[in-house]
Design goal:
Structural class: mainly alpha
Number of strands: 0
Largest sheet: none
Strand content: under 5%
């Protein structure tokens, strides 16, 4: 077994252990019977509205990603963007794989564009701008709630972290230096591909008009995600309000993005519990909202499975056709 595969297996094992430990801790601290009762009695109307809002958020996210590809002169039809986005969402939320949904989305896009740096760069750029939008969205919620100095400092801290990630890519010496240090000289091809991706991301982020359009749509996306949580709480008969959800949801999902558990399980529930407790929400309701969010998004991502299979079948058909044509050409010479 190679060193890289051994390292991957250890990382996966650690994530499994942490996931199980976090789930066990949450399960130990709350009343599981009460949790099941809360989820079983979700109001159908509010739950249906949450599903509609999730689908609207997906539609907007695919649109803003398409703006980046189009500006880089690699436009894709909107339907194709939606297909790739659903596939990525499926891998992110349903399959506990070590291959993230963004990696699958970039891979699928590479087959369409024929350009690895552009495909990967578009996904990375969209994610980075979405990260900044997390902090901006949290700020938008402050005027609608009673705030404390601690809450303001927490929101500003998360915004600075999100903006800092973008700043790293805008600093050539920092970003290029990281690539050179992480990848040994013998990996020439990989170094070139990663370096090209970093340059694509940097050039895209410096496009001011594109950045403003994408971050505006990203903020709208985050508002919709917060609205999903607001709908879920209403479905449980708990009024939290959109303002609180605007503040806490971005911070929760900033933490959930840390690759320390499978599909964010355990981390997300603990984060819901901690943040929404600041709004006076009980532990059962907070964890219930987290699980309901995960289930709703998971159900909405299910179309990604047949779309992924269809993409693979079409790709195999094209490759077989090319192989047959190649053999015919050889036979005719």
């Amino acid at each position: 077994m190679s060193a890289s595969k051994s390292s991957d297996l250890r990382a996966l094992a650690l994530r499994i252990v942490l996931t199980m430990a976090l789930i066990a801790f949450v399960a130990w601290r709350i009343d599981l019977q009460a949790l099941g009762g809360r989820l079983a009695r979700l109001d159908a109307g509010w739950t249906s509205l949450a599903v509609v809002v999730v689908l609207a958020a997906i539609a907007i996210s695919a649109w803003k990603w398409g703006l980046i590809l189009a500006r880089r002169r690699f436009p894709l039809p909107y339907v194709r963007l939606l297909q790739h986005y659903f596939v990525g969402l499926f891998f992110n939320n349903v399959l506990p794989t070590t291959v993230g949904g963004d990696a699958v989305r970039a891979w699928e896009t590479t087959r369409d564009t024929g350009e690895i740096p552009e495909a990967v760069g578009s996904v990375v750029t969209e994610r980075l701008i979405a990260g900044v939008a997390l902090g901006v969205t949290a700020l938008l919620g402050l005027p609608f709630v009673e705030v404390s100095e601690r809450l303001v400092l927490l929101v500003v801290l998360f915004l600075l972290i999100d903006v800092g990630l973008v700043a790293l890519f805008l600093a050539p010496k920092v970003a290029d230096g990281v690539v050179l240090k992480l990848l040994p000289p013998r990996f020439t091809g990989l170094r070139d591909a990663v370096g090209g991706t970093v340059r694509v991301v940097r050039a895209t982020l410096r496009d001011r008009s594109l950045f403003l359009r994408v971050i505006a749509l990203s903020v709208l996306f985050q508002v919709l995600v917060a609205a999903v949580n607001a709908c879920i709480f209403e479905a449980m008969g708990v009024h939290v309000g959109l303002g609180r959800c605007l503040i806490y949801t971005p911070m929760i999902f900033t933490i959930t993005m840390l690759p320390i558990s499978l599909s964010g399980l355990g981390v997300r529930e603990a984060a819901y519990w901690y943040f929404f407790a600041q709004a006076g929400v009980g532990e059962v309701e907070s964890v219930g909202a987290s699980l309901a969010f995960f289930i709703i998004v998971g159900l909405c991502s299910l179309p990604g499975a047949p779309l992924f299979a269809l993409n693979r079948r079409n790709a195999d058909a094209v490759e077989n056709a090319l192989a047959v044509n190649g053999q015919d050409d050889l036979a005719s010479t």
